Amino acid sequence: MTESGPDGASEMSARVDAPQNRSPVVALCAAVAAVVVLVSIATGPAAPTLRRAGLLPGPASVTEAWFSDVARLPRVAAPGQRVSVGLVVANHEGSDRDYRWRAEMVDGPKVTQVASGALQVRHGDAEHLKVTAEMPQTPGRSLFRIVVDGGSANEPVLSIPVCTFEHDGSGCEDVGR
């Protein structure tokens, strides 16, 4: 580029522009690297210190429960028949727990407790539980429900729809056996 100075002489000047913005890819890589470093520090050796300082939440507390053998769950029963259900209760609450459990038969608005008990589970362990209950004397469809109480949050509830058939064996034809 040619410009005239105050004395009219021509001067050659080269204009060099400094880059105004860096490549977006470089900026993104830097941001990702910073996040990875911070997460590594927060979840690694610094995690206990950050938790004590209140800067990082503690691990989630939860109680899990599940049926130990889904294929053997009762779907159909005779009136008054005793049925057994196996379940597992796992404690991830942060300390040992004493759980109370109850088995209920739910028939519309009517709820009848049919069994109950207690179970101790050490933190990080899982215990097997066998619940045995008597089916209603009256034929019909009901819900066999098991409630585990003693965790710090919501109590696990396991439910099995069970059909109690008529004395002649009818009434549950559409329920898988």
Question: How do you describe this structure in short?
Answer:
With 177 residues, the protein is mainly β. It contains two helices and ten strands; from the N terminus they run E-E-H-H-E-E-E-E-E-E-E-E.
Descriptive report:
With 177 residues, the chain is mainly beta. It has two domains: 2-52, no CATH class; 62-164, Immunoglobulins (Immunoglobulin-like). It has two helices and ten strands; from the N terminus they run ββααββββββββ. It has helices spanning 24-43, 47-52; strands spanning 2-4, 10-12, 62-67, 76-77, 82-92, 97-107, 110-121, 126-134, 140-149, 157-164. The strands form three sheets. A five-stranded mixed beta sheet has the order 4-10-9-6-7, with no helix packed on it. It has a three-stranded antiparallel beta sheet with strand order 3-5-8, with no helix packed on it. The longest helix is centred in the first third of the chain and has 20 residues, at 24-43. The mean pLDDT is 76.
